[in-house]
Amino acid sequence: MTPPPRPDRSADVKDKIRSAAKRLFTADGFDATGIRDIAAEAGVNPAIVIRHFGSKERLFVETIDANSSWSSALEGPLDEIGERLVRAVITGRRNGLQVFGSVVRASGRADVRAHLQSSLAQQFVGPLAARFAGDDAELRAHLFAAQATGLMFALSVYDDEYLISASADGIVEHYGASLQRLATG
Amino acid sequence: MTPPPRPDRSADVKDKIRSAAKRLFTADGFDATGIRDIAAEAGVNPAIVIRHFGSKERLFVETIDANSSWSSALEGPLDEIGERLVRAVITGRRNGLQVFGSVVRASGRADVRAHLQSSLAQQFVGPLAARFAGDDAELRAHLFAAQATGLMFALSVYDDEYLISASADGIVEHYGASLQRLATG
DNA sequence: GTCTATAACGTGATAGAC
DNA sequence: GTCTATCACGTTATAGAC
Question: Phi and psi dihedrals of A132, rounded to 5?
């Protein structure tokens, strides 16, 4: 009568798939990593990946979060937010930028684009708009997000070698100040 | 001895393929448009597309230019360059943004990324660095490009609905001024 | 000999039978 | 859960047409 212990082996398998997918998607991007690669790394059969997650695209969306790396930089004093965010993007884990790049490149798919939009809205624009002052606060929050993603874009999508190897201080000074202007005028 | 009349039928075919490719790549993106779609629209056989252009990727690179739409906005007085560029991006052909988005999403491929980099360097960063003053002119030119692409990115890649339907004047006022700061301090 | 067309190969994601 | 089939894709081999 007592239900069997139910170790629920499938939760285990899903986790293994998730972490394999996360590593491969981050390193190689959406297109270049196949279901077979993920399955091999997780030690399971390719078909069960689809069976558990529905499609490669859904697995990607469920596994990857484009903006989690620097949302913490949005907290703290508002009059230094530009500098703080720029520094977080530049010096933060290179991993965060890689993830951002892989999401951007996969954003042709509707589900991925929707995920990118809502992630930016919830982790970026929303919190900013709530803190900014003035009646154009929402507009400035959107523009702040656009400018911030511009830097991530340069570092992770088109790989601006000059900026990648430039001194952090120079970037912080100029780009941070330019961002700050949108936050506090 | 006289060279043959050279009707060169193949130039004709190449042109038809090019314009079909341009339209489809722009409208649907790199992944979603197949060689077979392009061939059908051009009225030719799929195999000759590859024969003439080598690969789908090379056809893409040869057909699409991510930044040609607004490079003209970089000319003119330097003390209004921020406003001028923002206005060009916002009010310019929606086509230019679509092309930009399709290049960005295809930038996982090495050839496409290289093309995007050199296009930005030659049409954007180079001319800017030459006109900016100060010893950090080159750094500011790169940051200017990063910020400018941030706006294009918002409008064409993650499709920020708020910005897309916002009044041009508000965006020009804030983002243009923030850009201008990098151009002339 | 160059341009074009037909058919086929290899690989990818995914669906269905067992 | 596993295996196999299916379908679409980019690409290539090959052979015909001018």
Answer: -70, 155
